[in-house]
Design goal:
The chain is α+β, with helices and mostly antiparallel strands. The protein has one domain (about 15-185): VC0467-like (3-Layer(aba) Sandwich). It is built from five helices and nine strands, in the order βββαββββαβαβαα. Strands 1, 2, 3, 4, 5, 6, 7, 8 and 9 form a nine-stranded mixed sheet that branches. A hairpin with a 2-residue loop joins β2 and β3. The longest helix is centred in the middle third of the chain and has 8 residues, at about 115-120. The protein is globular and about 50 Å long. The model is unreliable at about 1-10 (pLDDT under 50).
Length: about 190
């Protein structure tokens, strides 16, 4: 496991669920960390597409008229908190006025209708992932889960986060650390 930075912040990192993750909502999850501080943490699951949700249907519900050739966009289950709220994780080339959280030099996160309108018109960011809901932790909660061997941390790459093969992202994230899932144990050791 990569150590936490000196400040403890995981902004722009991936959390990779260990095989023994007890919470079924997070089994084999890869979570992109949008914000992490002493007050808590917020991230988006990037490898669990929402079944039966179409981007065009979402736009219709929001009264957004798309361009005729709007691409089919997968919608993800971003986490168990606020299922009805949408978040767009995107490349750093896009910024909505005062509404985009610049996570780092590669990623931003925006949760406004403006970005959906821009995407629907072909004017949004170069790369993006749409999620409903998010994963959230209170103060110290994520740190406890990391110490309890619930998660591994890894660097996030745009190709892994925005890639089309959601079913392969968990193993790809582990592989980025040089780890095969068959070598992982759900129990932590002590020294």
């Amino acid at each position: 496991m990569k150590p936490l930075s000196e400040s403890g912040h995981l902004n722009g990192k991936l959390l990779i669920a260990m095989p023994a993750m007890q919470d079924p909502r997070f089994a084999r999850s890869v979570i992109f960390m949008c914000a992490h501080s002493d007050e808590g943490a917020m991230g988006l699951v990037v490898n669990k597409p929402a079944p039966d949700l179409e981007f065009r249907d979402l736009l219709a519900q929001l009264d957004i008229t798309p361009a005729r050739d709007v691409p089919q966009i997968r919608i993800h289950v971003g986490g168990p908190v606020e299922h009805g709220r949408g978040f767009v994780l995107h490349s750093a080339d896009y910024r909505a006025t005062d509404a985009t959280l610049q996570v780092d030099g590669h990623f931003g996160m925006t949760a406004t209708l403006e970005i959906l309108e821009d995407i629907s018109q072909g004017q949004g960011p170069a790369r993006y992932l749409l999620a409903l809901g998010y994963a959230g932790w209170g103060p110290g909660q994520l740190e406890s889960e990391l110490q309890a061997n619930g998660w591994l941390t890894a660097d996030a790459t745009p190709d892994l986060v925005f890639g089309d093969h959601d079913a392969d992202k968990w193993e790809a994230a582990l592989a980025s650390l040089g780890i095969s899932p068959s070598f992982l144990s759900g129990s932590g050791g002590t020294a």
